[in-house]
Design a protein that fits this description.
Elements: H1 5-27, H2 34-38, H3 48-73, H4 78-100, H5 104-124, H6 126-129, H7 137-156
Helix pairs in contact: 1-3, 1-4, 4-5, 5-7
């Protein structure tokens, strides 16, 4: 059943969208709280609507990236599952640390680890995935931006 690309794509897409959903639930209205609104944010902070749009797009593309990688490595490859699961937990965990607990410094550690993991994904598998490596590029770009936003908040609040 998991031998078809479309099936694997929907497995990864479902897991990715579940991470987004859980992350939003853990935010506890974070971007609309007085705490967040009162923070000094980076001048390059995108408008709020862009975050949902960017993350949704990233997760659709990342599902394609992981689908292709799972055919290169095998769907149940231990290393691949560990990397993907770690990415998933860091992605969800950042929302809780930053928005729910207001731990901006700890959030920065989490987002830096997530950025390093996405850098690892991007460059470790590029020779195997060739042109499919471009599917993770938006994730990498967004993580660089998000990390810079978190860093700015830590340094200026």
């Amino acid at each position: 059943m998991l031998s078809k690309p479309i099936t694997r794509y929907f497995v990864f897409l479902t897991a990715n969208l579940l991470a987004l959903y859980i992350g939003v639930q853990l935010m506890n209205d974070g971007p609309r709280t007085e705490w967040y609104l009162s923070l000094e944010k980076a001048p390059w902070t995108p408008p709020n609507w862009m975050f949902g749009t960017a993350w949704t797009t990233i997760m659709f593309l990342y599902a394609g990236y992981m689908t292709k990688l799972s055919f290169q490595r095998s769907f149940l490859n231990k290393k691949l599952l560990l990397l993907y699961s770690t990415q998933w937990m860091l992605n969800v965990g950042w929302n809780y640390a930053f928005f729910n607990q207001h731990k901006t410094g700890f959030g920065l550690v989490v987002i830096l680890l997530l950025l390093l993991l996405i850098v690892y994904f991007t460059f470790s598998f590029k020779n195997e995935l060739k042109q499919y490596s471009w599917l993770i590029a938006p994730y990498l770009i967004w993580m660089i931006i998000a990390t810079s936003l978190n860093t700015y908040i830590v340094l200026n609040n």
